[in-house]
Write a structure and sequence with these properties.
Blueprint lengths: L5 E6 L5 E5 L4 E7 L4 H10 L1 H13 L13 E4 L2 E9 L5 E5 L3 E6 L5 H31 L5 E5 L6 E4 L4 E5 L7 H13 L8 H10 L3 H10 L10
Helix pairs in contact: 3-4, 4-6
Amino acid sequence: MSGIPVQVVRKKIKNLHLAVYPPNGRVRVAVPMHISDETVRLAVISRLGWIHKRQKVLEQQVRQSKREMVTGESHFIQGRRYLLNVIEKNGPPTLVVRNNKTLEMQVPPGTNFLKRSEVLQRWYRKLLRDQIPGLLAKWKPAIGVNVSYCGIRKMKTKWGSCNTDAKRIWLNLELAKKPPECLEYILVHEMVHLLERSHNDQFRGLMDQFMPQWKLHRDALNRAPLGDEEWIY
């Protein structure tokens, strides 16, 4: 379409959703089953300016090299960069932040890349779990919604998602690497979806009402260094 390859995926959904994904600005459109190909084509053409803008952002975005889980490489925690120091020592694996600059990992001798990665992922997961209850306590009365469950999982295409019927929210594990305000923004974003499902004017108005600085937080999230499986929200 207009020289831009577009992946079209038909699903049992109500609205058309267009997204641009790293690393090369791939364009994907999720389309309700009843919408015609011509309608999809016109929808993509109408958003060419936005597509080009997103592709340019991705092109300029700082990226981390592939992590190897070895001493000396950098890892992000809540928006700050730490140097990893791996110590091989008998006993259960541990992970501790030292002097606000070093991430010290102790693992048994011979622990491979996958096992070291699992240690870090578990640590990230706990970091998010410890933050979520306080954020929910702050925002549930402010927004006026009930959240039945808020969980954490790895997601390839979204920073967060919600099931509006079950009032269940999922947050991307990668948010543990981002500044705390980014986590808070995504949680509020998903909670507001419990009031308005679409990203329409009403949704944006609610975001302006509850979190006037939300666009700054969104931009900070999208400027943060990308890993192998992180995306523009």
